[in-house]
Design a protein that fits this description.
This protein has 3 helices and 9 strands. It has about 180 residues and is of the alpha/beta class. The strands form 2 sheets. The protein has a 6-stranded mixed sheet, with helices on both faces. Strands 1-9-8 form a 3-stranded antiparallel sheet. α3 (about 105-115) links the parallel β5 and β6 (about 120-130). The radius of gyration is 16 Å and the shape is globular. It binds inosinic acid. Inosinic acid binds near residues 43, 102 and 104.
């Protein structure tokens, strides 16, 4: 285990199982529909890569990158799009793929932004949900794992761009950021 990690919350097998189950559900729900997975860089890229290989129906992918206004560590929900989708989405069912749903402010903003482009539908799939932390109601169609209220890293999730390469999700030692 990495020395900065105090506890492994989800190991590679648990993550793989949750991803497989979500992929199967998505395959069933979107069979015969034109599906586009949209991921917000960077945190969800590892999850996206595994999720797509568990979806049997045809699927396309696209990526967005956003940056928060202001310097606060806490999400304000008001974001600036620094990389937008490559094409219009008006004839797609869109599934927004997230790594972790915390306050929900970012996702809420992005869902509204995508909806304004008039796709056939917009739903959310998140690997992790921090239960009870949402400051706005976010209707998530697919949730992989319930996460305690702690700062977690690994499997794509970072702190200051580190730890994304860990194959598990663990709690970061508060000493690292305090
Ligand atoms: P929200 O707008 O508060 O829901 O923020 C969601 C984003 O904040 C996620 O996509 C992550 O990039 C980041 N985030 C929230 N909680 C954590 C965490 O525990 N570890 C790493 N990143 C986090």
């Amino acid at each position: 285990m990495h020395p900065d990690i105090t506890e492994i919350l989800f190991d590679a097998d648990q993550i793989a199982l949750a991803t497989r189950q979500m992929g199967q559900q998505i395959s069933a729900d979107y069979a015969g529909k034109k599906l586009l997975l949209v991921t917000v860089l960077k945190g969800a890229f590892v999850f996206m890569a595994d999720l797509i290989r568990n979806i049997e129906s045809p699927v396309e992918v696209d990526f967005m990158a956003v940056t928060s206004y202001g310097a606060e560590a806490k999400s304000s929900g008001v974001v600036r799009i620094i990389k937008d989708l490559e094409a219009s989405i008006d004839d797609y069912h869109v599934l927004l793929v997230e790594d972790i749903l915390d306050s929900g402010l970012t996702l809420n903003y992005l869902r509204k932004n995508l909806k304004s482009r008039k796709p056939l539908s917009v739903e959310i799939a998140t690997l992790l949900l921090k239960e009870g932390k949402q400051e706005v109601p976010v209707d998530c169609k697919y949730v992989g794992l319930i996460c305690p209220d702690a700062f977690v890293v690994g499997y794509g999730l970072d702190y200051a761009e580190n730890y994304r390469n860990l194959p598990y999700i663990g709690i970061l030692d508060p000493k690292v950021y305090s």
